[in-house]
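Below is the data:
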Amino acid sequence: MTFAIHGLAVSRGIAIGRAVVVASSRMEVRHYFIQPEQVASEIDRARTARDAVVVELTRLLESMPADAPGEVAALLEVHLMLLQDEVMENGVKQWITERLYNAEWALTTQLEVISRHFDEMEDDYLRERKSDMEQVVERILRHMRGVASPVSADACVAKTRRESDAQEVLSDDMVDAPLVLVAQDLSPADMLQFKRSVFEGFVTAVGGKTSHTAIVARSMDIPAVVGARAASQLVRQDDWVVIDGDAGIVIVDPSPILLEEYQFRRRQMRLERERLTRLRHTPAHTLDGQKIELLANIEQPEDAPTALKAGAMGVGLFRSEFLFMGRSGKLPGEEEQYQAYRAALEGMQGMPLTIRTIDVGADKPLEGKINPSLNPALGLRAIRWSLAEPVMFRTQLRAILRAAAHGKVNLLFPMVAHLSEVEQTLAQVRLAQSELDARGMVHGPVALGAMIEVPAAALMVRSFLRYFDFVSIGTNDLIQYTLAIDRADEAVADLYDPWHPAVLQLVAQVIREANAAGKGVCVCGEMAGDVAFTKLLLGLGLRSFSMHPAQILSVKQEVLRADTRKLQEWAQAVLAADDPAAVLKSIP
């Protein structure tokens, strides 16, 4: 019987295949007491399994393909950090020594203790990290049992075969059919294996739009639905499953008519993507001859080839914080950062590279460096943290300035809200330049820009433009702060509205003021890659968009069909409307 399971849409596309179900993320373990003379050997058994997982994840990092998203490496490094967590290790030792628990029992007991601490945390992002610790413990347990990773291709096919024993043999259509994965959760390491395996899409019972699985799925452009809590219980092994990543729906045992409809939609999507690839080398000009700059957002230097392949004219946002994450608090030095920025610049083959200085805090905590606050989104984050750590800040600035000797580099500062912050920031840049001069080290010129992410910055943009060469609108945070909505909180997710009149008024004001001052202005948030906003932004005077590489060709298609002369009056009507989304029906 056909039925649907609703979850969160986190990665576009449609996947159709037979279900491979990994119902639980935690293995069953034996619980028994050991003898006092076994304590040392039991502690050693736990440590040996832990070390084996460290080696496994390290090898995954070292063998990561060049086209793997930067998020995967950062998340794997988080798991490596958790593997070596002293609280976890000391707790396991204590349970074994004092209670005489066997190693597996000690591991799961300490996991429960740590999980309770995660559950009590105020911050949604930090609470979601509990699943990372669970995945780490599961890997250790699997090494103790000598069992393969639950989502490796070999393990899943073997599992499917075992659970189909009642049929005696696996049918031919099952062997040849595409597979989709249904799991409680997926770790970053599992996701890396997932990319190399036979799966066409995945469904998880847990996770939100900011969970690791969602982040990595979007960067890999894989159809996915998360937070489908009933999936593990309702989907059976070998069921036919349709994953609608656009609607956030999982359809189980679809009828022939429904299956045919989704197969048709999937074929249309694939044809559309193939057709879009023909636009890669087409100049992004509107019908009335306006040249539009389409740039890419990247996280790691290795992302540069993907950006070029997508037809990007440069990088509008290099999120440098990914170089700092998952390092157990040990920050990259000047030379390491310089090499990374230079590699990204060279990877773009002469095209411009915009590097945003480290933006940590809120949904991107930095281990051991930022104390948790009651409201991280409003706390010590982004440029505030950089100015509070001037030695770290100038180390990054020197590395960027040195890289600028090898090509065109733009330097972007996140979450600037006060003129005093502007003055302090520019003083730090001048000091970093002086330090390089004193060393006799070569450095290049950089254009300086500010992220417009808070309403205060949008309202003061005219003043900011006296100090900066360009501004970049970070719509994700601008929407969050304008509407007082925590975008990571599912309870208020429906109130996160990019079409809100106040949001559009602020975006329009920034574009208008920048154009009037003859300064560059770019949108680099999710709005830039959403084709529903392309013509509105063009009508408001925007000529530079920065987005995930996978979105560039779709936006380019909208650009090629647009006439900015006809869009200007319509865009003003959208701004004047109480319900801007309703005016879309009259789009020229």
Summary: Residues 151-175 have pLDDT under 50 and may be disordered. The chain has 25 helices and 16 strands. The radius of gyration is 25 Å.
